[in-house]
# Entry
Amino acid sequence: MINKVILVGRITRDPELRTIGSGVACVNFTVACNRPFQDQQGERAADFINCVVWRKQAENLARYVKKGALIGIEGRIQTRNYEADGQTRYVTEVLCDNIQFLEAKQEASTRQAEESDPFMNQTKYVDDDDVPF
# Structure
């Protein structure tokens, strides 16, 4: 049987590291992956895929990755269920075996600055008549 997943997308929020009872590090996160086609309005939709990573990779993800960072994931689909409020809940997620950071830290911080400052990418042209000398 084959259960293999490869994803490339952007992380939707800053990862939060947690440890389970035995002291093992874990991070649950979501990756947004654009669909390869456009809808009738010309916009691309995205799929938001739940992922989980354990141990050292979880620590590295929490330490070095911020919201919006481009990452590559190799893993497998895992399903589980649990009881909550008398109802059975089902969860499908990608259990990450390998995570690659696909952009340099400087590129990510520059992109975040551009997204937060709408005037950063605008070019202002000065007319020669406006120059005082």
Observations:
- The chain has a mean pLDDT of 83.
- The radius of gyration is 20 Å.
- Strands lie at 5-11, 18-19, 25-38, 44-54, 70-84, 87-101.
- Helices lie at 55-64, 105-116.
